[in-house]
Every structure is written in C-alpha cells, then in structure tokens.
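OP here, attaching both records as promised.
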Amino acid sequence: MKAAVIERQGAIENIVYRDWPDPEPGPGEARVAVKACGLNHLDIFVRRGMPGFPVPMPFISGGDVAGTIDALGPGVEGWSPGERVTMNPQTDDGMMGEEIPGGLADLVIVPAKNLIRLPDNLSFETAAAIPINYGTAHRMLYTRGRLAAGETMLVLGASGGVGMACLQFGKMTGATVIAAAGSAEKCERLTALGADHVIDYSEEDFSRAAWLASGKKGCDVVVNFTGGDTWAPCLRTAKRGGRVLTCGATAGHDPATDLRYIWVRELDVLGSNSYSQEDVERSVGYVAEGRLAPVVSHTFPLAETGAAERLMEERGFFGKIVILT
C-alpha cells in the first residue's frame, strides 16, 4: 500500500509518500480501505514531536478515518467486507495516529468494536470530519460542561474543527453562541453558520468584546482549547459560577493565569480528554439527521499530505482539512 510516512520527527519535509507493508488484521480486528482521513493538530504534534511522548519512527499518523471494510480478522462477527464505516479512533491500545498507526494510508487496522456504520447519506469526506472534532466537542460540552438551552457560550478558535463543532452543538442545544476567530473573513463565515455574535480577535480584545456581547453578565460557558496568551483573558469573560472548558492547548500549555477570577467568581475550570464510542456514534447520527453540518475547508490527495499540514500550521483554512486516498 501507499502511505504518508513520518520518517523522523521534525519538519514537514520528513513526511514521505511511499510504499508501506499491507497490515494484516488480527483477532477481533478489521482492515479498512481508507477513502478519507481528516487532519487534526495531533498530526502536527506527532510529526513535530512532543516532550515526554515518544512515538516510534517511522510512523503513520491520522485519526479521523472513513472507508470500507477490506478484510476481517478471526472472531469478528456482525460486519462484512464492503460495509461503509467510520470509527472511534480511541482504542484500548491507544489513539490511532498518535500511539498506534493511523489512517494516512491506503489501509488501516482498527478493532472491530471501534467501527461505526456510516449512513448512506454521508460521504466519506464528510465522515472524516466527524469523529475527533465532534466526539471531543460532545464530551466536553455535555459530559463535562453541562451545556443547556438558554445559556451563553464563548468559543475561542471557533473556525477550526473542534471550535466549529462546539458552535454547531451550541446552536442545536439552544444556547447563545459567541464565536471568536482570527480574521474578518472567518467571522463572516461563522455568522453564516449561525453564531449569534462574532469577535475578530486580530482586531479587538476578545475578553472585553465577549463581556459586552453577554450584556455585561459574563458567559455561562467558555471554551478555550488554545491556551497560551488567551487563557488569562478568557477567565474575565465568565460569569459568576461559570464553567471554563479546555481540551487542549494549541497555542501553549503553560500559560499565565489570574487566580483572582477563579476564586472571586467561583469558576469551575473543567478539563475534557478524548471521547467515548457513544460520543462519536451520536455525532454521526446528528450529522446524518441534518442537525449538524461539518464544513470541509480543503481536500488534498494522500501524496500531498505535507502541503495539507503546512496549510494547517499557517491557519489558512476554515473547517476541516481532509486527505483523500
């Protein structure tokens, strides 16, 4: 098979499109012929290298996979070759594309229990935009954040995959959504997707703008998976008793903070990590029902995975970048 192989950690040039041995499914496993694989920041982190998180090289990343079942290992029941599937990439052996080989290849191995049937009305391209982004957002907003109708929610980084999923879940739930992004063009597109208020944080102080947009009451829920220099200001946007949710730190994991806002406003700072099979299955169902609509920004062939990652690093996209095989 062909694969986009990270030969060694570091620069984009270390991704090489080349031959790779076909994987064979073991007991309880399925081999999936990959049709589409969505990119995530985890692919950037794996390729660059993460302190304290060694990844054996060479390696194939890619966690958001959609395709057809190509072969089944011993003991697998209830599935047949040719079935259209996506999957929960968080397996018992680790995260696909981060701890075990992922889907930036023609073929990928997945535990059969992690498979999710793909409704006929969903394309492979759309399906590859669902599992990690919508699964992550679903767990963070509902299991951890207890988002409810009538609440006000601020989403930082709203033009990315998880941010856009949060926006759409918020509107589906009946929340007022304040969406922040880094350009006027992205803010216009977020408005078209249903955001009640938008903030271009390249032009204005997002914490002040969010406070005003909330009617100077503060936000019930603040979603911040960027970290870095956005962390301390985001605390100022939360109302007394508000919840600040985080599932990552794309701009830095060791930010300055301001403890005064946490104790004076009695804020709940809640972490959310990964997602369950149910989170992904429910998200796929909502998309199939038309209640959610993933946005695919760009598609690239597998041979141009490096160019796709460069676009992600430069933040020149809106929605999901998907690799097609």
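Record two, same layout:
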Amino acid sequence: MAKIRLTKNELKKQKDSLKMYQRYLPTLMLKKQQLQAEIRLTEIRIKELLDEKERIDQSFKVWIAVYGEKGIFYPGLVKIANLKTAQGNIAGVAIPIFEGAEFVVESYDLVATPLWLDAAVEKMQQVLLLDLEAGIVEEQRKRLDHELRITTQRVYLFEKIKIPETKGSIKKIQVYLGDQQTSAVVRGKIAKRGLARANQGSAE
C-alpha cells in the first residue's frame, strides 16, 4: 500500500476513488457473468458441431465401405477454396462469426463414375463445414476466455484490494484529522485558560 498524505485534499481524493471503484465493480461483475454464460454457449455449440460431424462421418464411412469402389472417392477430391467469416462483438470482445465456405471439387467423369460419388462429395462438404464452424466457435471461446481472465483479475483487484485499501486510507485520514481537530480544541482551551489567568494576574 502506497504511503498516503494525511490531509483533507487526500481524503477527498480517496473518497472520489472509492466512489469510482464502487461504481465500476458492479459493471465488471456483470461483464464477468455475461462472459461466463457466453463461454458456456460456445462450449455447447462446439460439442453439437463435433457430435454432428462424427455422426455424419461414421455413417459416411459405413456408406462408402458398402457402396464405394476403391479409388473412386478420396479426401482430396473436395478442397476448401474460401472460408467466409464476419466480425461480431460479445461483451466488448471482437469475435469472428462463421458465415460458410466455398469448395473446389476436382473434376470427374460423370459417365465413368458411379452416381453415389455426387452424394459422397456433398457429404464431405457437410463434414468440412461442421469442422470449419467448430474451429471458428473455438476461436470465439478462446477470445472470450482471455477477456474473462482479464475481467476476473479486475474484479478481484477492485473487490479485494482497491476498495478495502481505499476504505482503510479514508479511515486513517479521518482518525488523524479528528485527532488533530481534538488537539486543536484542547490547545485552544488551554490557551484560553492561560490567557484568562494572565489577565487575572495583571488585574491584581
């Protein structure tokens, strides 16, 4: 704790600081709660996306194993050409928002390849979209988590350090100024009595 001056000006400064801390603390606590809620939502969304991806992926693998012919379908057949995102804002945090993706499909002979290949390409795009969105939502979670750590530190700083420290400083200054005032009154009374005695002595 920094050394404080025991003056009326310092008392006013400390009282102003206390008002500021007490005004901002509820806002910080509200932000902390909002961030925690948003992080929970991102975690739920990531799980939903990955579960859906796994479901499609598994059914896709079984389907390819049953209907597919070796060498007809391969992962490189579908490639991501462009990931589309926008900028959003949650509790003052800039976050990316998933808006879709564009794919490039390697050309294949529509006559020579089986009909199921078209459906396989579509399934692959669905899986990639889910994976890409999960990646973007994970980035949202990371940014929100980073902001939550900073906000939590500020809440702790205000609630556990700054407010108690400032209250302690105010009390210390008030006690000192009160003692000074009492001393001044006592000194005034003593001086007054002394003056009265002096006046009485000179009168005799």
